[in-house]
Fold this sequence. Notes:
Number of strands: 6
Strand order of the largest sheet: 3-2-1-6-5-4
Strand content: 25-35%
CATH architecture: 2-Layer Sandwich
Radius of gyration: 15 Å
Structural class: alpha+beta
Order of helices and strands: HHEEEHEEEH
Number of domains: 1
CATH topology: Beta-Lactamase
Amino acid sequence: MAEDLIIKHHIDKSEQYESLLPQIAALVEGEVDRTANLANACAALKEQFNWLWVGFYLVKDAQLVLGPFQGPVACTRIAKGKGVCGSAWAEKKTLIVPDVEAFPGHIACSSMSRSEIVVPMFSNGEVVGVLDADSADLSAFDEVDAKYLEQLITFILNDK
Length: 160
C-alpha cells in the first residue's frame, strides 16, 4: 500500500475509525518490525483525530518505557500502577479518563492534556505495553474509541 492515508474528518467517529483501521492494517501487513508498525499507527491516528498526543509505552525492566509517539515531548518512564498508563497496565483494562485533573495520581506529562484513554497491549495474557492518547479537550474519549483502539491493538501488535 502507498504510505498515503485517506483522511475523512466530516463523518462520525465510528465511521472515521472504520475508514482508518483498514488503512493501518494495510500499512502494517507483512511488516515484522514492531517499532515501525507502532510508529505508523501513531502517525495515522494523530493525522485522523488530531489528538494532542498519541503513542505507545512498552514494558521494559518492570516499567513502561516511552516508545513511538506523535505530539509534544512525553514522560520517559512510568511505574506500574502510577498515572493512567501505569494503572491501565496494573488493572489490565482500558481506562477512559474524561478529566485528567480528577484522576488520582495523574502524571502531567503535558499541562495541555485534559482527557485521556489508555489501552493495554497483551501478549500471552501479559501486558507488554499500552497505547496512550491524550486530548486538549475534556471528555474527548468514549466507548467508541475504546472499541476501535482495542481492535487496532489486535492487529498492530506483532509477535513475530
